[in-house]
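In response to a reviewer's request, we include the raw inputs and outputs for one of the modeled complexes. The two entities were modeled together in a single run.
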Amino acid sequence: MSAHAEAIGRTSGSRRAKDLVFQLAMFVCLGLAIGLLVVLLVDVAVDGAGNLTWDFVSNFTSISADQAGIQAALWGTIWLMGVCALFIIPVGVLTAIYLEEYADGTKWYNRLVEVNIQNLAAVPSIVYGILGLAFLVRGPVELGPLGTGDPTILAGGLTLGLLVLPVVIIAAREAIRAVPPSIREGSMALGATQWQTIRRQVLPAAVPGIATGVILALARAIGETAPLIVVGAVTVAAFNPSGLGDIFTAMPIQIFDWISRPSSDANNYQPLAAAGILLLMILLLLMNSVAIWLRNRYEQKW
Amino acid sequence: MLAALISVLTTTGIVISLLEETIVFFGDVSLSDFLFGTDWSPAIQPASFGVLPLVSGTLLVSLVAMLVATPLGLGAAIYLAEYARPSVRKTIKPILELLAGVPTIVFGYFALTFFTPEVLRGLFGFDVAIFNGLAGGIIVGFLIIPTVASISEDAMSAVPQSLREGSFGLGASKLQTTLRVVFPAALSGIVASLVLAMSRAVGETMVVLIASGLVAQWGVNLGQPMETMTAYIGTTAKGDIATGTIAFKTVFAVGMTLFVITLILNLFSIRFVRKYRQVYE
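The model returned the following structure tokens for the whole complex.
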């Protein structure tokens, strides 16, 4: 502010005061947003820290609150993330390669794919749940154990995968676009085919960016609750899933179940929900840290 | 090429899966009863399928959310783009992104166990029900602040420095420059961020499902429980619903309504940016 104020020469006092008040107001807006985040984190930590014990992690859920744990949900979430990753990495990367390296952007079908991906990124997550329910669980694909209408790990993981696919595609495209054309031209000039160039030059250079995108996509998928509710993940499970065809519960589902169960003073589920949230947030923080570390460690300047 | 098809197939899948059961649904219930009816009670005999209470619940919650997110998000964006030092900006932006990465179920828990009892009832002394539209709306508002702030900030940062210098050169203050030069120049990005945020608020499920209650209300009482479209879908699909029942079909009909509303908002946002984006140099 001072530099241009001097340049102007005379800035009247009231104008400067108005300026300051405005700047302060804008700062308060930012402060409120971040303040709420802090209050939220502290509130969850205070409610949940006392309950986040080894027993909580290793016990199955139970009707008596002081014995309930999150083991089945934790394993369910790990399985879901595995399926999700195995789906989004190949599909997301191949789509990005196609759109960046092969597609002719002036063709109508390529523009359709682009607009489509933009739109998919903004479809409410619960609608993906409906898609999963109609197609993957009950509909033509029917991945549920026959007749029961319950979803399997595979159906749940794929539903989440479709949901976060746009995130991976957008990140992978940016990473591929960041590789300068000179690298491609150099490779082609040495006689490499386009596919060889992509596989040996472009992809290795883009791996850190793609990996960051995948981790951020999984970080989004891990907390998604609504689509899993709609596909019908079970809420009370006293067993770990052992394969793709098993029914499952997941951490956010378990947390939601604890929040919505009627609690009494003798049997209070709310601290359990807070402990579950705390565990979920710790996992999220780990994933985000890895993503940031990857980005800083391997970021390449051309 | 095949991989790119998956994204198109997903959209097609969404539309087909919604349409199929929705058409069956409208075999049982007339379209005008659904669109203009003001009584939503599919489970009580005689059943009534007027979707307006759910739509009004959704719009009310989104309206409250936008009233929170518009000033706070834009304020934060202006501060970051025009006033903050680069080092401050570099630390604050990741924190805002962190806010965007918190699972919505966490916000739901917070709204129900802290915001309603401690802030709305305790701090402000409002006479609100445990489940109420106000808490849901305000918390959804905070949830979409990063969407508004991040995109608007990008738009304002993209306004070339020469415009600001020209404005200062004519004797304008920082405040005048920000509001009369930078803000209008970045307007297309700012409007797009608001529309996108609105679309997120309309589609948000967990916060309203947990904190706003499940009573389809045709009215504007924010202190009382209300039900949004997303909350209805969530709570109905939670129980084991058998394929082919009327409850199963309502999920799809309401889902279709939701999908159409968000699709219109998204397309509007994309078009708006294309049409009004100023290109400098």
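As requested, we also summarize the result in words. DSSP finds twelve helices and two strands in chain B. Chain B touches chain A through 85 residues (CB under 8 Å).
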